[in-house]
Write a structure and sequence with these properties.
Elements: H1 7-16, E1 21-25, H2 32-39, E2 45-54, E3 59-65, H3 72-79, E4 84-86, H4 89-96, E5 116-121, E6 129-132, E7 139-144, H5 145-154, E8 160-162
Parallel strand pairs: 2-6, 3-5, 5-8
Antiparallel strand pairs: 1-7, 2-3, 2-4, 6-7
Length: 170
C-alpha cells in the first residue's frame, strides 16, 4: 500500500463523487462507550468497526451498528469464512491505513489491492444516514447510507449486507 489517505484526501474523493457529508470534530474516542455521549447530538446510525482475519488469511472490515452484539461464530458460518481473530495493528495499518480506534468504513479507500471484504450490519439499513470516523477518531462524519455504499463501491469494495447477531437473531 502507498501512503494512507488523509482526511482531506477522503473529503476530496467524496466531493469528486458528488457526496455531501457533515463532520463534527470532537476529542478522540476509542470505544463505543466513549462515543455514546457524542452520539446523542449527532443523528443517524452510529457504527463500530471490526478488522478481522480468518484462519484462511482472508480479511474483513465489519461495519456494525454500535449496539449490535456481533456473533463471530455465526458470522463465520454466514460468510463461509474460517475462524475469526482480530487483525493485528500492523496489518491494520498496512492494509487499511488506520490505527486501532480509528477503524472506519472510509478506510476501505486505502485497500487499493482489494484484500478486504466489507460486511455491513443489516441493522444499519434502518438508518437513512450513517456516522463514521473520517480516517481519524477525533471527528465523526455523517453520510447518507446510499452514498456510503456508493463510496465503498467506487473504492472497489461493494458491501455485503449481513445479519451480524447470533443465529437466533437476538
Amino acid at each position: 500500500m502507498g501512503k494512507p489517505a488523509t482526511r482531506a484526501e477522503l473529503f476530496a474523493v467524496l466531493a469528486d463523487l458528488g457526496i455531501e457529508t457533515t463532520t463534527v470534530d470532537h476529542p478522540p474516542v476509542f470505544t463505543v462507550a466513549e462515543s455514546e455521549a457524542l452520539e446523542r447530538g449527532i443523528s443517524g446510525g452510529h457504527t463500530k468497526n471490526l478488522f478481522l482475519k480468518d484462519n484462511k488469511g482472508k480479511l474483513f472490515l465489519v461495519i456494525a451498528e454500535s449496539h449490535t452484539k456481533v456473533d463471530l461464530k455465526a458470522l463465520t458460518k454466514r460468510l463461509g469464512a474460517g475462524r475469526f481473530s482480530f487483525g493485528k495493528p500492523d496489518l491494520l495499518m498496512e492494509v487499511l491505513g488506520v490505527t486501532p480506534g480509528s477503524v472506519t468504513a472510509f478506510a476501505a479507500m486505502n485497500d487499493r489491492a482489494g484484500q478486504v471484504s466489507v460486511v455491513v450490519d443489516d441493522r444499519l439499513m434502518h438508518h437513512d444516514t450513517v456516522n463514521c470516523h473520517p480516517l481519524e477518531n477525533a471527528a465523526t462524519t455523517n453520510i447518507a447510507r446510499a452514498d456510503l455504499f456508493r463510496f465503498l463501491s467506487a473504492c472497489g469494495h461493494a458491501p455485503h449486507v449481513c445479519n451480524l447477531g447470533a443465529a437466533d437473531n437476538s
